[in-house]
Design brief:
heterodimer, A: 305 residues, alpha/beta, Rossmann fold, 2 domains, 7-stranded mixed β-sheet, 10 helices, B: 368 residues, alpha+beta, Dna Ligase, domain 1, D-amino Acid Aminotransferase, Chain A, domain 1, 3 domains, 6-stranded antiparallel β-sheet, 6-stranded mixed β-sheet, 11 helices, 35% helix, elongated
């Protein structure tokens, strides 16, 4: 099992502090990539290199060296984290370049990546003992330390609650509510809204569940697929005891219509909100009716334990 | 995209999967010619992108010209679960001995294709208890696996061979066309002992459309949905009267749920997306202004990378150009929301601090 915490924040140094780990940006010169590179730098993320084929030797904002390939960037910097901003059509090649060059955590931002390409990358990641988050994810953030993603900084604060979410904006909305209610986050992971995810709900859960600093978890799901059901069963099977609160978007969505996310579609009963909510109930996870209710339910859960 | 039955059957034919003789049409002139060519009796089948059409009366037997003249227009003008008829398929009846079920679908959590087969077909698969489920990899289904599935649903000898061939062809179709689902239901055993696909459903991965020029002719979107896609946001049209707009699929779904919980009926699910600009939001408002049934607009934004002022600017332009005259109920949070609220202060937009209050307002307005 990949230790996502260690990849993101390293080991504690002699003073008891975590270390910012170096990050590469693929597609750093694109419109989207450059905007978010600046925002990640503002947050304090240690971006050490960019990759744009054909632009080797140039520098981003006069300070970050650009390379032609991830291989060159990794050789020069030793980074194990890469965030990808290339268009969906070019994603497969960019991801292969990263995984074949020793990247251990690949954060895949692009939306509209074909399922077949995503599955190919997942297969390669398994072989290389690496992890892909996404595609179509806002990324991952350890508040106060490192942001590898496109999420705004303001909703998040450092704390002890892990938030796992298929949706980006609901992640911001709910984290903001948690922050206001005094529940900072120890990590938040965007699963992504696509049908096939590099890091599934269950994988994300396994990545964070054993962190000694973790006190509670919030799971933000939505219609489509069965990753929430599988997670709930896994929580029952593993006997995980820390408080968990859920939210499921799309209770009222019509069947067989894609609701914005490629993965958000109910086929028959497969992927329905009812199925997810009833499995959460079996796992003793209360499900909020509205995003604003999550923090209230969490407070209740925590005080009853 | 979700293919209609006749489109799925065109793919079946291309991959050598046997189907009954059939011809599709969208008007009665062409239908009359098709009827002559096919010869009575046949069935008239409504083509809609939704299940349950048999129960809704969307499949009718037809024995004569008189019956045809009566039934064709009826079926052409019907709608099922809010979906209008897209086309009519005339199809020869098959002499059925038994109905089976077969599908291949993309198992999202296992990240592989999965076969579902059953000796009970012709009904929705969820209602069938007796299912054979086999996870297969990402490649073609091999003959051994196909044979095992055939045996499990009780097929032997010639029927086993025909089933193996059909499953392998379906697998080839699934992989080549990048389908998320390819279903034959019912898969009929005919009185003469041969196998035939009587109905078909195929859904392909929209994200792979750029690699499938050949499927573009099946692409079906309303004019509004098409314009929405061009502008980079996603739109689902519904038959209610409240236009729901927001940024991010999850947030819009959540808003949509709350509107419905509170007795409102959404007319749109409109996600302006992560890359929203003043122009694209203006475009979204232009689309909504064309939807005559809309009585109110509900806006729920969590400004992150997209600034709420970007969206507010689009509303101001829309008011200035008299594009919208509808009451707007908005809740703006996040980046620059104070500034956005200030900008919209003297307009027809009513601001609310919580989404619940905004929803109460718009539902009351729409139910007036």
């Amino acid at each position: 099992m990949t230790d996502i915490y260690e990849i993101l924040r390293g080991k504690k140094n002699v003073d008891g502090n975590y270390q910012k780990q170096p990050v590469i940006v693929q597609g750093i010169t694109g419109k989207y990539g450059s905007t978010h590179t600046k925002l990640m730098l503002d947050y304090g993320t240690n971006i050490v290199a960019g990759v744009t084929p054909g632009k080797a030797g140039q520098k981003f904002e006069d300070k970050i060296p650009i390379y032609d390939s991830v291989k060159d960037a990794v050789e020069a910097t030793g980074a194990e984290i890469s965030i990808v901003f290339v268009p969906a059509k070019f994603f497969l090649n960019a991801a292969k370049d990263a995984l074949n060059s020793g990247i251990k955590l690949l954060v895949a931002i692009p939306e509209h990546v074909p399922i077949r390409d995503a599955m190919e990358v997942i297969e390669l990641a398994k072989q290389k003992d690496a992890v892909m988050i996404g595609p179509n994810t806002p990324g991952v953030i350890v508040p106060g330390l490192i942001k590898v993603g496109i999420m705004p900084a303001s909703p998040f604060s450092s704390g002890k609650v892990a938030v796992l979410s298929k949706s980006g904006t609901l992640l911001y909305e709910i984290s903001n509510n948690l922050t206001s209610a005094g529940f900072g986050q120890n990590i938040t992971i965007g699963i992504g809204g696509d049908p096939v995810n590099g890091t599934r709900m269950i994988d994300a859960f396994d990545m964070v569940k054993d962190d000694p600093e973790l006190e509670a978890m919030v799971v933000v799901g939505e219609i489509g697929g069965d990753s929430e059901e599988i997670l709930a069963q896994h929580i029952i099977d593993t006997g995980f005891k820390k408080p968990i609160v859920g939210y499921i978007a799309g209770r009222q969505a019509p069947k067989e219509k894609r609701m914005g996310h490629a993965g958000a579609i109910v086929m028959g009963t497969y992927g329905s909100a009812e199925s997810k909510i009833s499995m959460f109930a079996k796992a003793n996870i209360p499900v909020a009716k509205r995003p604003g209710e999550v923090a209230v339910l969490l407070a209740g859960k925590m005080s009853s334990q | 995209m979700r293919l209609l039955e006749y489109q799925a059957k065109e793919l079946f034919k291309e991959f050598g999967i046997r189907t009954p003789p059939s011809i599709s049409s969208t008007d009665i002139e062409k239908g009359r010619k098709d009827a002559k060519e096919l010869g009575y009796p046949f069935v008239i089948k409504v083509q809609v992108p939704v299940g349950g059409r048999g129960k809704a009366g969307g499949i009718q037997k037809c024995n004569s010209d008189d019956e045809f003249e009566l039934k064709y227009p009826q079926l052409l003008n019907m709608s099922i679960k809010g979906e209008k008829t897209r086309a009519i398929l005339l199809e020869k009846m098959a002499d059925i001995e038994k109905e089976l079920y077969l599908s291949l679908f993309l198992n999202r959590s296992k990240r592989c294709y999965t076969i579902i087969a059953s000796s009970e077909g012709g009904v929705e698969i969820e209602s069938v208890k007796n299912q054979t489920i086999r996870e297969v990899g990402l490649g073609d289904v091999d003959a051994q696996t196909a044979k095992e599935v055939a045996n499990e649903i009780g097929l032997k000898d010639s029927q086993e061979e025909q089933f193996v061939e059909m499953l392998q062809k379906l697998s080839k179709l699934t992989i080549e066309k990048e389908a998320e689902l390819a279903e034959i239901n019912p898969l009929a055993i005919l009185k003469d002992g041969t196998l035939m696909a009587l109905d078909g459903k195929v859904m392909t991965d929209d994200n792979s459309n750029f690699r499938h020029e050949e499927l573009q002719k099946y692409q079906e979107k309303s004019e509004l949905e098409e314009q929405a896609e061009k502008s980079g946001f996603s739109l689902v049209e519904l038959d209610g009267n409240i236009a729901v707009i927001g940024n991010g699929a999850g947030l819009v779904m959540s808003t949509f749920d709350l509107v419905t919980d509170n007795g409102g009926k959404p007319a749109t699910f409109l996600d302006v997306g992560g890359g929203a600009t003043t122009e694209s939001v203006y475009e979204a408002l232009t689309l909504i202004s064309k939807m005559k049934r809309v009585k109110g607009i509900l806006v729920n934004l969590y400004g992150g990378i997209v600034k709420t002022t970007t969206v507010a600017e689009a509303f101001i332009q829309a008011y200035d150009n008299n594009l919208i005259d509808l009451p707007v109920f908005a809740r703006l949070m996040g980046t620059e929301s104070d500034k956005a609220k200030e900008m919209l202060k003297d307009t027809k937009t009513k601001m609310f601090d919580s989404i619940e209050e905004a929803i109460n307002g718009v539902v009351m307005e729409a139910n007036k």
